[in-house]
C-alpha cells in the first residue's frame, strides 16, 4: 500500500491548501445509479482517513453537500484526526435577478448543509454572459468573503475573456474549475496566460474522460449511444471522443498511453492525470468518487510515484496530433454547440431573463419599428433606443461598457470591448437577430495608439468567422472612464 503522505498539496489563494487530487462528487448527483446516504458517508470517511481530504461538490449535486456535512460534523467531533477536510462547492444560479440577498441566501444554504462556519472555496458558474448578473453576484460573494463566511472565491467553467473582466474589476478570484484532459487542452491557451498573470490556479475535471482513459477500453469497439445510456460520464465523454477525431484517433492515443504506463509500472489513468498535473497552472485534478460503490484511492496515489520523461511527452504529443482540437474556450460546451455534456443541448439554460419589453410603433406605411430600450436616463434625455429593428434590419446605437452608472471594468479597453459586445449581442437577440447577422461594426477609441490592437483582437475573436465591414477610429468619448464605444448594424438572414 502506498503511503498517503505522498499525496502532495497545492496553495489556492492565501487562505487555502488543498490536495492535488480532490475527490469529485458529481456522481452523487444522479445519472450514475442510486446513492445510499449512510453508505456514502462511510465511503467518504474512508477516503478522508487515507488522506484524501479535499472534496468537490455543488449545490445541484443531489445530496452531496449533505453527505459532506455529515462527514464534517463527524470528524470535527473527533478533533479532525486526518486534518480539517477542505470543502469546495459550487453555486450555479439561474440567470435573472441578482442582488446581495440572493447571494447570501445561497451561501447560507450551503453552510447549513455542509455544517461548517465557512466555505473553503465557493466556485461560481454563470450560464449566460449576455446577462450581466454575474457582476452583482461576484460583488455579493466578495462581501461575504470579507465577513468570513467564505475563505476563497473561485469560478467554474468561465472562459478567459469573462474571467479577465472579473480580475480587471478587482474581484478576489483564485481558481477556475474547467475541463482539461488529453482530449481537451483548451485551458492551455488564453486561460493559462491569465492564470500565470493573476496567480489563478486551474482545478481540472474530466482528466480520465469518465473512465475512457483507462485499460478498460483499450482495443475495444466503440460503444453505441444505447450501450452508454444511463451513465452520465460515458454519455458525456463519448461526445468528446467523437468531437476530437473519433474512436480510431482515441484508440491510437490510448495505445501510446498504455506503453508509457507499462514503462513506469502504473495505469493509463495515472499517465493521463500526470500529464494534466504537470501543467504549470494546474493546482489539482478532480477524480470522480462514486461513494459506496468503488474505491480507486490506492490506484490514484500511483500518479505521484513517477514523472513523465521527455520521450513520454514527445510520444503523447505525436499521438495527440491525430486528435481534432475542440473549438472555443473553456466552458463553451455548456453555452454553445457542440454541447459536449451528458444531456447534450443545454440552450434551454439560456433563459433570456435579461430581456426587457420591446416597444413597437407603426411607421405609417405598414412597416413596424421595434425598439429595444434599456430605460437608462440618457435614452430619455437624448431620445434614442439601444437598438431598433425595421423589417430585417437592426441598428444598434453606440454602446459602452456601462453597468448601472459606471464603466466596467475600469482601465481595460479589451475587457470593456467584451462587455460592449455582450450588450450588442443581447440587443440583437432581443430583436430576433444573432451575432452572425451583423454586417457592419464601428469602433471608437479615445486612446487609439494604446488600445487599438487589444480591442481589434477582441473584435476578431467574436467576429472572426462573420467578418462584417468594420471601421475603427480615434475619437473622444463622453466620460474619461470609457475606453471604447461600439455600434453595429445587422440584416437578419432568412
Keywords:
35% helix; TIM Barrel; 60s Ribosomal Protein L30, Chain: A; 8-stranded parallel beta barrel; 7-stranded mixed beta sheet; 20% strand; single chain
Describe this structure in words.
With about 500 residues, the chain is an alpha/beta fold. It folds into 2 domains: about 5-345, TIM Barrel; about 355-490, RutC-like (60s Ribosomal Protein L30, Chain: A), CATH 3.30.1330. The protein has helices at about 35-50, 65-75, 100-115, 135-145, 160-170, 190-200, 225-230, 230-245, 245-265, 270-275, 295-300, 310-320, 375-380, 415-430, 450-465; strands at about 10, 15-20, 20-25, 55, 85-90, 120-125, 150-155, 175-180, 200-205, 280-290, 360, 370, 385-390, 395-400, 400-405, 405, 440-445, 470-475, 485-490. The strands form 4 sheets. An 8-stranded parallel barrel has the order 3-4-5-6-7-8-9-10, surrounded by 5 helices. The protein has a 7-stranded mixed sheet with strand order 11-12-13-14-19-17-18. β4 (about 55), α2 and β5 (about 85-90) form a beta-alpha-beta unit. α2 (about 65-75) packs across α3, α5 (about 160-170) runs parallel beside α6 (about 190-200) and α9 (about 245-265) packs across α10.
Write the SSE topology.
Blueprint: E1 9-12, E2 16-19, E3 21-24, H1 37-49, E4 54-56, H2 64-77, E5 86-91, H3 100-114, E6 119-124, H4 134-147, E7 150-156, H5 160-168, E8 173-179, H6 190-198, E9 201-205, H7 225-228, H8 232-243, H9 247-264, H10 268-277, E10 282-288, H11 297-301, H12 310-320, E11 358-362, E12 368-372, H13 377-382, E13 387-390, E14 393-399, E15 402-403, E16 406-407, H14 413-430, E17 438-445, H15 448-463, E18 469-474, E19 485-491
Parallel strand pairs: 3-4, 3-10, 4-5, 5-6, 6-7, 7-8, 8-9, 9-10, 17-18
Antiparallel strand pairs: 1-2, 11-12, 12-13, 13-14, 14-19, 15-16, 17-19
